[in-house]
Amino acid sequence: MSTTNNIRFAVPFFMVRDIEASLEFYVEKLGFIKTIDWTPCGKIEWCWLQRGDVSIMLQEPRDREKFDSQGPKGNGVSICFQCIDALALYHEFMAKGVEIKEPFVGNNMWVVAFPDPDSYRLDFESPTDVPEETRYSEWFK
I need a surface site. Which of 9, 93, 116, 124 has the fewest CB within 10 A? Predict the structure, then answer.
């Protein structure tokens, strides 16, 4: 039996300090849709979010004090979303109040990068033929 095509996709699973704040960020500002949630004690503790073909999961731990004592969660973690037009998303997200550093070209991709509320780095990237290390302000005049 071949298992070559057994794995279909991976879904990032973020432990978050405040799931309501994270939901506001991902749904209201980034345009994800909550498709599944888990509310075992009358409050949402886990959810599945989707935008197009991309999914992520969020979970808030019940023991927030222990969670906080473990330090920042997202440091060193990046999720790279491969897009058709990252610059269109840059404008969409900026219009919704997301704080984003200036996009740049890296590895033949426009890179729109910023942290979520728990410091997970989100990179929205799309292919380009613009020269490496070009900043958006240098290209768009």
Answer: 9
**Domains contained in the chain, number:** 2
What is the pTM (predicted TM-score) of this model? 0.84
Stretch (H or E) spanning 121: strand 121-127
Instruction: Give 90-100 pLDDT, tens digit per residue.
Output: 999 999 999 99
For residues 105 and 133, is the Cβ–Cβ distance under 8 A? yes
Residues 52 and 76 in one domain: no
Locate 114 and state its tokens.
């910023």
**Rounded-to-integer distance, Cα 112 and Cα 92, Å:** 11
The answer to whether residues 46 and 39 touch, using CB atoms and an 8 Å cutoff, is: no
User: Cα angle vertex 34, ends 15, 48, to 5°?
Assistant: 45
